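Before surveying the methods themselves, we first show a specimen of the format, giving the amino acid sequence and backbone structure tokens:

:::
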Amino acid sequence: MDGGAPSAPSTSPLRWGIPDAALAWFVSMVAAALALAPFYDTVAKEIPQSDEAIATFVGLVLQTAAAVGALVFVARSKGLGSPARDFGLRLGLTDIAWVPAGLVLGGVATALLAPIIELGDIDQESQDVRRIFNDATNLDLALLIVGVLVIAPVGEELLFRGALLRGLVRRVPVWPAIFISAMAFALIHVVLDVGTGFGVPALLLLGLVSGWRAIQTLRLGQSIALHCGFNLLVVLAELSGV
């Protein structure tokens, strides 16, 4: 890692900020809820296990599409005109090299969580993602993997390391901004799936490293690749039954 403190993105006058990031996240959540509605069994008051994998994929697609759409609107109406210029949504072939780094980061996070899981006698089967992976088969499983490895990282990095982090660095110093955006990222996962509460330190670690790379490079390519590698470890663990 570089020794010096990272520099903040350009402070050119912009009319978007933290509220716009929050609104984009809210819009994405509404879109995800609407996407899941057709799969919901009103009698059982839940999504049938046989539909959970495809429902999760559809939800991730519409959630990410809504986030991107909302931030495109924000960029065009209040910013520099595009998610690339406003939020750093740019990817290159060299970013792929950061996928293995994400795997390593996931391994470190797993090691950090091991004593928490053991001391707390935590049942990881309570996690929605783990349960859905266990029930998924064939095409549903393939789509779920695409959703977790590609779609989710793009949407979440755009929201948390693109819009939110860049909004924060215009108000607070860089490192506090990175921490706040990383903590928001971690806690929102817990709100959406209470079974992941024990994973806050791991998600916070991912958020901190991804935020650091987003600030250093002024783009999201490395952050997305890190996130993909981090999630890849989860996918491999689920597929291997670990």
About this structure: Residues 18-240 form one domain. The two ends are 31 Å apart (CA to CA).
